[in-house]
Amino acid sequence: MHRVFQFKYTLITAIAVITLSLISSSEFQQRRFWYFEGMDKVIHVCMYMTLSSLFFLERYWSSKTTSANIIKHYNIIPLLLFGAMGGAIELLQPLVAARSCEVTDFLCNITGLILGFYLQILFIRILKR
């Protein structure tokens, strides 16, 4: 149970990502000042970048080790699981939230995961100075 709570911020973020992804689009009030074409793609990248970077930062804080190699099994497995979560959410959206399932949203999710991985490496290097 302790291992689960070491990732408390990741869990909170994952719950927020799932909740925001499955809310009906009619519940979002679009403000024209902030809205621009493709804004939802930016939101997808940001949500999954936050999820990924928080996970790897929390793992680093608990073990004090990190690897910049994304292909290592202890790095790729969580990314694949988060990617599968993003894919499952995209498939569930038409059923649960009357929203469309878009391949570009899924690609933005994957992009966010990869950016989040490299962002946490940069953040750790800055903290070590």
UniProtKB/TrEMBL annotation:
A Pfam family: VanZ
Keywords tagged on the record: Membrane, Transmembrane, Transmembrane helix
Signal peptide as annotated in the record: none
Keyword Transmembrane helix found: yes
Transmembrane stretches, start-end: 41-61, 73-92, 104-127
UniProt domain VanZ-like: residue ranges: 27-123
Record bears the keyword Transmembrane helix: yes
Protein name, UniProt field: VanZ family protein
Species this protein is from: Xiashengella succiniciproducens
Taxonomy of the source species: Bacteria, Pseudomonadati, Bacteroidota, Bacteroidia, Marinilabiliales
